Amino acid sequence: MNINVLVILILLLVFALAIRGSIKHLRGQGSCCGGGSSTVREADKKLNGPVIQKKVFGIDGMHCENCTERVKRALNRIDGISAKINLRKKEALVLYEKEVEDDILIAEIERLGYKVISVK
To answer: The pTM is what?
Structure first.
């Protein structure tokens, strides 16, 4: 076998594996963001008081469970907030037990490298 043919076959194989991994990543099936294959799930945060408000934040850039856990942890660190993240919908459902400005939550999400595209 010619050495050039062998090099081309190896390059095609590497390219095919890279494409396969990229497709899985974009579908949220692969690991990304340093999450590895075993993402540690954080328990849902329980609020002490009654829920006074609910908002849904649309978030662009989340591709895997590690992404959602990063956003959930960041939002749940904010006093008076409990967040649940839906990767498929690319949304965070945020429950409030006290008034917190949207800008605070948006800044926290975008500090992680994601983009808030809507607040409803």
So the answer is: 0.70
